[in-house]
Write a structure and sequence with these properties.
By secondary structure, the protein is of the alpha/beta class. Helix content is 29%, strand content 18%. Helix 1 packs across helix 2 (43-51), helix 2 (43-51) packs parallel to helix 3 and helix 5 (114-126) crosses helix 7. The relative contact order is 0.15.
Length: 351
Amino acid sequence: MPRFRTKTKKAQIMSLEEAVKGFAHDGVMCAFSGFTGFNRNPFAFSWQMVRQGVKNLHVVDRHGSCCTWLLNAAGAIKIYETNWMGWGEMAGKLDINLERRYKAGDMILEDYSHGATAMRALAGAIGAPFIPYNAPLGSDLYNPKYDALGKAGMRDGKNPRIPKKKFIQMEEPFWGEGETILLPAMRPELAIIHVAQCGDKGTARWRGVGTIDKEISFAADRVVILAEEVVPESEMRKLPEGNQIPYFVVDAVVECPWGAFPSSVPFYYDYDAPFMRDMDKISRNLDEQKKWLDEWVFGPKNWEEFIVKLGAKRLLDLRADSVTGYSTRMMRGKKPAPRMKMPLSVAMSGY
């Protein structure tokens, strides 16, 4: 049956604990917002998933993040469809736990390209069952012998979220322009999106890079929004062109300040590279990793206590400049980032 969105949703405002308990069951197919490990990762949600013991996740991801790093550290991901096995360039190019678990046969890894992942999300967002895309032609990513879910016998139609084929290569029928690739739509059960602001009815916005966050919000059956601040819905209507996610696709809203830490929320706070480097470092030693999980995940009573544990000085240093959108206090190499006085294009032109 074709998938149609026939009903407007009414978002509920709830706590982080309630949202995870209500939407993140064992085996859920989920997608996370953000860009790599540095921008709007809904880390607090994955943190709470680990605390609640959610397992056997099927994650469809545009690339790794702080969220998938933590879930892999806890052994919570069973199937991972992605286009990049890392999670943060300045933290560690490769997710060590992903590599460890994949080599041990503890998870299935299905590989698509960056563009193909975006196109699959777009197909899901517009309700199409598939979408044509020429870029994959000639790539071994679309060689049937590298179809991981197919080799695992999971493309038998029993799971409605796993397509019966990874792709189809066919003759383009309209223009006579040769071969094209058909990619199946992405159909996650749950999208978790961290934003800057969200109205109390569910309309959401962010500033800065958005990647495919809007598309996965439309493609998913259920959407949970984590927001730095929840504001009156009327406030979101003052500048409607600044909104990316409409209220009618949102199921739950969680006000969760600093909920994307250690990644950034532009114009709220910057990413914490030293903290992320420590995460990568401890992942190379399982005993050290267990100590880290006990201290930072299972130790605090709640997310607020996690943030308090970070300390006021760290949070103040990460606080973003209201003009540039990033911190001018934190160290980037041997000195803090320069304060921008004018756009770089203007400075280079000599005016």
